[in-house]
Amino acid sequence: MAWRRFRANRRAMLGLYVLIVLVLASVFAPQLARHDRDLPDIRRAEQPPSREHWLGTDELGRDVYTRLLYGGRVSLTVGLVAVSIYMVIGVTLGAIAGYYGGAVDSVIMRITDVVMIVPFFPLALTMAAVLRPSVYNTMVVIGLLGWTGICRLVRGQFLTLRSREYVEAARAIGVPDGQIIFRHILPNAMAPVMVAATLGVGSAILSEAGLSFLGFGVQQPTPSWGNMLSAAISLKVLLLQPWIWLPPGLLIFVAILAVNLVGEGLREALDPRLQRGSACSRSGP
């Protein structure tokens, strides 16, 4: 039923198709690329788009189209892995806080509040500088700082579900707390968590792009859409060579928009109340 509702949402399906295209292009980058990813050719530096270089070349003569394909691999992987990291942290802490309550809940929520109070980018830049910028450290930094929203969401779900009859029945027959949390309550709390995780991929891609643009994320020569966009720091490139920075900027925009469309589609498909509300609004006077 949820899939039928999702499939009926044209914007969500459009976002899904775009994401599939981006993922396939990244997976098959070696087959689709026309040039070496990192090989510089100063003689062809900063050339505009041509038959040989469809999207032109960068300041080192590297093919922009080829680096876009490989950059998609890095940016999308960073987004997915970072979200996976903070999903594990957020779901675990939120489940424990919501199930046990009391002092355990207070301690976890105070830690969550402290992390949320500090602005993301200053703290992320500091951690990236300490850990040294790299692909893996970028995933870790985003994952360690992005779990707070998931934690609060899961906690709220658990506070609602822990008093249900099936949970009380499981306690009464002596089912261990860990089994109640992860087998009985968590599956019933996963719908909003899935939506938040989907939307979080877009935020993680944007965070990676910001860190890489500032030089604290993925480092050259490994391409990502963020560090390719850093070429726009130069006024000459910004004004006279848009083929160097415009394609990665557009792909970041398209990827985040597609993720958000899919996330909104999932939210409407998994929440029947929203579906009924939209149906009532369409059938109104």
Write up this protein:
With 285 residues, this protein is an all-alpha fold. The protein has a single domain, classed as MetI-like (MetI-like fold, Orthogonal Bundle), CATH 1.10.3720.10. 75% of the residues lie in helices and 0% in strands. The chain has helices spanning 2-8, 10-27, 29-32, 64-100, 102-117, 120-131, 135-145, 148-161, 165-172, 177-213, 225-229, 235-240, 242-270, 272-282. Helix 2 (10-27) crosses helix 13 and helix 4 packs parallel to helix 7 (135-145). The relative contact order is 0.15.
β-strand number: 0
CATH class: Mainly Alpha
- Fourth-level CATH superfamily: MetI-like
| H-E order | HHHHHHHHHHHHHH
Report the average pLDDT across residues.
87
Strand content: under 5%
Low-confidence regions: 276-285
Rg result: 22 Å
What's the arrangement of secondary structure elements?
Elements: H1 2-8, H2 10-27, H3 29-32, H4 64-100, H5 102-117, H6 120-131, H7 135-145, H8 148-161, H9 165-172, H10 177-213, H11 225-229, H12 235-240, H13 242-270, H14 272-282
Please give a quick description of this structure.
With 285 residues, this protein is an all-alpha fold. It has helices at 2-8, 10-27, 29-32, 64-100, 102-117, 120-131, 135-145, 148-161, 165-172, 177-213, 225-229, 235-240, 242-270, 272-282. α2 (10-27) packs across α13.
